[in-house]
Amino acid sequence: MLRVVVVVAVLLVFVYGLVDVIRTDRRTTRGISKTAWIIVMILLPVLGALLWFLIGRPYTIRPTPQPASHPIAPDDDPDFLRNLEIRRRNQAEAERLKKLKAELEAKARKLKGGSNAEDSGDVNT
Asked: Where are the chain's structural domains?
């Protein structure tokens, strides 16, 4: 019974290690190449699996999440924040220009109104 348990354990470690090597991206393996790891696993099933788990396995076994095509929230998107700041500046500039235009029109009306009064005053005197 003990022999069966040992054989099953060896097979499980070997199969799990081999599948893990096969599923791992070749650029993330450590030590030797992915092909070399598969050869080591086949030639030395238990030792190869142990070496794989200790030396060859990537630091992160989970695949790195791909960046989302769009941010989760608007305040996480730097482009949105940049555009928001640009819109705020444009709006402030538009308000400043509107005030300047109103002041200029008021001065123009004052000058026009003042020159009419002066012109009419000169004619009457």
From this structure: 2-56, 74-124
* Tokens 């482009």, residue located: 79
Q: How far is CA 21 from CA 7, 31, 46, 56, 60, in A?
A: 21, 13, 14, 9, 13
Q: Using alpha carbons only, what angle is made at residue 30 by residues 17 and 6, rounded to the nearest 5 degrees?
A: 20
Q: What is the pLDDT of residue 67?
A: 61
Look at residues 59, 60, 55 and name the one whose alpha carbon lies nearest to residue 37.
55
Q: Which amino acid is at 22?
A: I
Residue pair 24/11 in contact by the 8 Å Cβ criterion: no
Taking only the tens place, the pLDDT of each residue in 54-97 is 888 877 645 555 665 655 676 777 788 888 889 999 999 999 99
Dihedrals phi, psi of 24, to nearest 5 degrees: -75, 140
